[in-house]
Amino acid sequence: MTSRILIVEDEEKLAGLLRDYLTQEGFEVAMLHRGDQVEDWVRAHGTDLVLLDLMLPGKNGLDVCKALRAFADVSIIMVTARVDEIDRLLGLELGADDYICKPFSPREVVARVKAVLRRSKRGEAAPDGGLALDDSGYKATLAGKDLALTAVEFELLKVLVAHPGHIYTREQLMDLMYRDQRVVSDRTVDSHVKKIRKKIAGVLPDREIVHSVYGVGYKYEW
Ligand code: CA
Prior knowledge:
alpha/beta; Rossmann fold; Arc Repressor Mutant, subunit A; 2 domains; five-stranded parallel sheet; three-stranded antiparallel sheet; 8 helices; 11 strands; elongated; binds calcium ion
């Protein structure tokens, strides 16, 4: 079935460009240029995914996101012009499925839209032969093979896996991993993630399951 995308973007040229790319990929695309038209439109027409700009005339993207969450079962990708804004948005726990920062390439948007739709259809469960975490021995098994993670790598992966699709900043990961409040640098998280990825790639070379979100942090997603 064709997935329906609603683009809410007041920069009409940009909205048109996204529409062209998404249409070419076989999506059914509608556009709105004001925030205060979104709820009524979604009630009347329904949609699978909303690409929602943050700064909009009429009603801002935050309020639109909250309103949609209250009544509609739709995926939401928030679009913001500021990378540092994403931290604040994450803290608000709006329930958006992903965040994209401008300027973006339309190809990147198409890829993110597909990933979010795939996730919403598949639910949060990993497929058979997926990842299993055994707390007792810090043992992570992927497709039946032991990943041989260190204790720290195991803790980090466990935090990510607990909420598939949720984007964690490096600070959040450090807080959740290091309960003894040792001071560690951002680079420590990066280097652990790098090692985890290498071990995952050793078992499933074609599959990325720990994703970096540019300028923000990391998430786990099949
Ligand atoms: Ca805008």
